[in-house]
């Protein structure tokens, strides 16, 4: 039933888009309807150059996401467990966190050049916060009685961390993963679009679409980026159901 | 086996109890009953070593307990939903404290199976806490304590969060398992009837700052019955005795206390 409703929503959206695109209100070249975009997509997926760009973006994303998880989880655990360290770093974090990653492009260009490592660095910069904050927050929220129970059975600090705190934090961390994965993708495509340079779908859209007025390619790029976002999100949601069968955290 | 002498504690300027002394002998079930705010839970937390009281001494097997939880003690809390770990199954929760003990896997599994059977949950081992009713969850918590084979089991209002029917069932369950497995239990409750129904002895605390108002032996047969025992003359006279000690005279105050406890 839910699937039917979801599909119905998409169909209605496409119909409105198609109707609007064909209405003549805007030139078809500027606002291509989905039938035109679908044709463009089909062409792109048979073009090796486009596929290379797609793979490049995905790889960049995967590396950036992996590094974000690898950095943010341990750092979050340390910051969340040691009150002194948490307090000492709080204001620095609060200062760094709201700076948009895209605003750091000039700095990153100087430091890393215009290659994948620049994209990865900025994506990591943007993506570590949601995971880190969720882990820190969740560690602070572990129910006192969970800890009392462990203590009353004589579990020490290390065992309590491993067997009580970590499983309790896990659902929050995974929620952080979902947010971070989307943010990383967003930042990578945005850098490609703004800056071009290294290979990726954003760069492809800029070269063949934006710069030469091919709006169908711009739209196709948006559709692909959106689809990637949905796929990544549902992939992590699946992971969440596998790893957190008790449905904790979010309640 | 448990000797508490001159225990006192205050939160800031607020003295919760002073000069509490009591003993629990091997194999006994002792109930502590007191009005709300008299520091029953604080007392139990002190005895369990989860917190250190301001003054007094607690000896378990002659060894002092001060802010360190003794290894042969198990606590059953009132709020089972925050005491069982939702990521573990019922069996996993029962097994949780056993992993620390030097047992083989087979011994551990056997203890888990046995403890779940004692509380009537032999088939529910694979369920997770959130798939179980409150009564079932508290049974798991009791099974967890039993499987740990503690010398002393501390219970903090263990049946206060379940409905009346389940409460009777769990009370009888406790009486049965302690009879069959020789447990020593110290149980805290605000419910006068419960304290008399369950206890071999009832320790009555006064209003805060609380002291021991009475330490009474419950002269009831070991085999108790929810209907008959509660209707017996001995039970009725004991419960009114405890009620008198708890509330003193003055009905308005009694109502106030009852209301505060709801």
Automatic annotation (TrEMBL), chain A:
PROSITE patterns the UniProt entry points to: ABC_TM1
GO cellular component: plasma membrane
Bilayer topology: Multi-pass membrane protein
Subcellular location: Cell membrane
Keywords: Cell membrane, Membrane, Transmembrane, Transmembrane helix, Transport
Record-annotated membrane-spanning stretches: 58-83, 95-114, 120-139, 183-205, 217-239
The family this protein is said to belong to: Belongs to the binding-protein-dependent transport system permease family.
Record-given protein name: NitT/TauT family transport system permease protein
Automatic annotation (TrEMBL), chain B:
GO molecular function, one term: ATP hydrolysis activity
Keywords, in A-Z order: ATP-binding, Nucleotide-binding, Transport
Superkingdom of origin organism: Bacteria
Keyword ATP-binding: yes
Presence of the UniProt keyword Signal in the record: no
Span of domain ABC transporter: 2-232
Pfam families, per database record: ABC_tran
SMART domains attached to this UniProt entry: AAA
Name recorded for this polypeptide: NitT/TauT family transport system ATP-binding protein
Origin species: Labedaea rhizosphaerae
């Amino acid at each position: 039933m839910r699937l039917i409703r979801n599909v119905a929503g998409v169909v209605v959206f496409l119909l409105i888009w198609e109707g609007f695109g064909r209405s003549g209100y805007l030139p078809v070249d500027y606002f291509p309807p989905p039938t035109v975009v679908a044709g463009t997509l089909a062409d792109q997926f048979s073009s090796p150059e486009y596929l290379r760009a797609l793979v490049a973006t995905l790889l960049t994303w995967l590396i950036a996401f992996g590094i974000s998880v690898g950095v943010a989880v341990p750092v979050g655990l340390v910051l969340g467990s040691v009150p002194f360290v948490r307090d000492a770093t709080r204001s620095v974090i609060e200062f760094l966190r709201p700076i948009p990653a895209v605003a750091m492009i000039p700095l990153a260009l100087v430091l890393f050049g215009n290659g994948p490592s620049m994209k990865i660095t900025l994506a990591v910069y943007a993506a570590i916060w949601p995971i880190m904050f969720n882990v820190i927050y969740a560690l602070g929220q572990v129910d006192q009685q969970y800890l009392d129970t462990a203590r009353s059975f004589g579990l020490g600090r290390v065992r309590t961390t491993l067997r009580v705190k970590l499983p309790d934090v896990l659902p929050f961390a995974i929620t952080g993963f979902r947010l971070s994965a989307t943010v990383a993708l967003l930042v990578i495509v945005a850098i490609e679009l703004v800056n071009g340079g290294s290979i990726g779908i954003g760069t492809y859209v800029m070269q063949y679409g934006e710069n030469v007025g091919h709006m169908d390619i711009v739209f196709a790029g948006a559709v692909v980026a959106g689809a990637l976002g949905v796929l990544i999100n549902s992939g992590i949601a699946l992971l969440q159901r596998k790893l957190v069968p008790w449905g904790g955290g979010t309640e | 086996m448990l000797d508490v002498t001159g225990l006192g504690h205050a939160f800031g300027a607020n003295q919760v109890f002073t000069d509490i002394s009591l003993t629990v002998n091997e194999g006994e079930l002792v109930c502590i009953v007191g009005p709300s705010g008299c520091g029953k839970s604080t007392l139990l937390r002190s005895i369990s070593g989860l917190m250190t009281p301001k003054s007094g001494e607690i000896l378990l097997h002659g060894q002092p307990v001060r802010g360190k939880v003794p290894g042969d003690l198990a606590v059953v809390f009132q709020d089972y939903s925050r005491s069982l770990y939702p990521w573990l199954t019922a069996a996993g929760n029962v097994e949780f404290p056993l992993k620390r003990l030097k047992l083989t896997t087979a011994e551990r599994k056997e203890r888990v199976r046995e403890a779940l059977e004692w509380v009537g949950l032999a088939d529910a081992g694979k369920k997770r806490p959130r798939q179980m009713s409150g009564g079932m969850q508290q049974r798991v918590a009791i099974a967890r304590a039993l499987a740990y084979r503690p010398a002393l089991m501390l219970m903090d209002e263990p049946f206060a969060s379940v409905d009346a029917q389940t409460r009777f069932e769990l009370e009888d369950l406790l009486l049965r398992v302690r009879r069959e497995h020789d447990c020593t239990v110290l149980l805290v409750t605000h419910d006068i009837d419960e304290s008399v129904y369950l206890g071999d002895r009832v320790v009555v605390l006064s209003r805060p700052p609380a002291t021991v108002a009475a330490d009474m032996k419950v002269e009831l047969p070991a085999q108790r019955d929810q209907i008959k025992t509660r209707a017996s003359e001995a039970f009725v006279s004991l419960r009114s005795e405890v009620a008198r000690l708890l509330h003193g005279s003055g009905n308005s105050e009694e109502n106030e206390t009852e209301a505060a406890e709801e």
